[in-house]
Amino acid sequence: MAGQQGLFSGSTPLAVRMRPTSLDEVAGQKHLLRPGSPLVNLANDTTGTSGAVSVILWGPPGTGKTTLAQAIAHSSGRRFVELSAVTAGVKDVRQVMDEARSSRDLYGVSTVLFLDEIHRFTKAQQDALLPGVENGWVILVAATTENPSFSVISPLLSRSLLLTLQQLDDDDLAMLIDRAVADDRGLRGAVEVDDEAKAALVRLASGDARRALTALEASAGSAASETPEGETPVVTADIVAASVDRALLRYDRNGDEHYDVISAFIKSVRGSDVDAALHYLARMIEAGEDPRFIARRVIISAAEDIGMADPQALPIAVAAAEAVQMIGMPEGRIPLAEAVVYLATAPKSNAAYNGINQAIADVRAGRIGRVPKHLRDAHYPGAKRLGHGQGYRYAHDAPFGVAEQQYLPDELVGTRYYTPTGNGHEREVGPRLERLRAIVEGRPMPARPADAAPAEKVAEKPAEDADAAAEQDDTSAKLPEA
């Protein structure tokens, strides 16, 4: 247990103890920390006269959003207030605004308000921020892991500078680990970390500084507990793996491995290899991939790769995504797995996907034409005088609910965008579609496959079923159904 007590400072996590107190200590985000950049100017402005603007920091977890906000506050000598959108309400926001205005007016001290997870704030809660931001009572530093264009109200976006944070690269993470091992705020040199262990910690972190330091702290504690008195604990790759209770996956959510794994996942579903699909799903889950990202890919796969071959695939994928949103992880892995199994084992068709792509290509190429007059809106005064709506046949009044008339513009008559496959549900859609098109276009309906069957095949039907079969065939020949 040698050195065990020297490894930790009370109950404060290593990741918190190692937070930089100045921008010089911040790892990564070099594109945001160049001389003269908004964040640097904000941190260096000790007088409050530089015209500092509020900023929204958008990036993955563990990339330094909280760190940057605190470093700015410490460097500039401003008052720092932190709120979490998970727990704060409108009342809390207004209280902060009142205190910030008093601090500025009475003492000349401006306030940096760090609001974590701003995307969780409702519109009303975000509206409460506007007076303080607009009047300069606070300098808002808001953090979000979701696209602010969809999660932050427009008035707040227009009054703030949007800055995008990037995941830390391997060199940044290695530097952080070295600093945490040696720094007095960290492990104070009480342990050593060998090269393989450091590489393992970097891989496990996947660009997340907080994850790297949390894993380092757990590994250092394990190494210390296993080291005899008087010897220096050494963190090895095996200790890292045992401490975090998972294999050392190579999966960087911003690197090639991320795209390789998601590509293999989608292609395994498309290729109907359910075991491979579950394998890659597990790799993404264990590597800490955002389950919402996985769910979105599952929905896309359902629409693109299964399509009309099994129309139930899409609602099942959407239900899985909603379940993940409702119950979170780790339980969310179960509906995700159920949806993946369904999609991988379902019949496949990309006919709808190809159809919309071909239709869009025609529109972009200018093949649009005018809407036929009989289909144009006829509900406004003067429409009939223009001939709009005249000659339109109401489909429900026609036999089988299908009317013979032109729907496509003249330039596109006869164009086929949707060509069903013979897989799954599309086996039924194909023949029905041909009969529908024949009625719409005024052509004779094609014969059903049963009508063209060899005589000996018909004769093989059991005698007791012959009348029913004949009746069914006769009815089917009349209706435009499969």
Main beta-sheet strand count, sense and barrel state: 5 strands, parallel
* Poorly predicted tracts of residues: 1-6, 451-482
CATH class assignment of the largest domain: Alpha Beta
CATH hierarchy: architecture of the largest domain: 3-Layer(aba) Sandwich
> In percent, how helical is the residue content?
40-55%
Overall 3D geometry? flat
User: Order of SSEs, N→C?
Assistant: HHEHEHEHHEHHEHEHHEHHHHHHHHHH
Average pLDDT figure? 84
**Which topology of the largest domain does CATH recognise?**
Rossmann fold
Provide the gyration radius in Å: 32 Å
Strands, count: 7
How much of the sequence is in beta strands? 5-15%
How far apart are the first and last residues' alpha carbons, in Å?
Answer: 76 Å
Q: Let me know the CATH homologous superfamily of the largest domain.
A: P-loop containing nucleotide triphosphate hydrolases
DSSP summary: helix tally: 21
**What structural class should be given to the helix and strand makeup?**
alpha/beta
Q: Tell me the number of structural domains.
A: 4
Main sheet strand line-up: 2-3-4-1-5
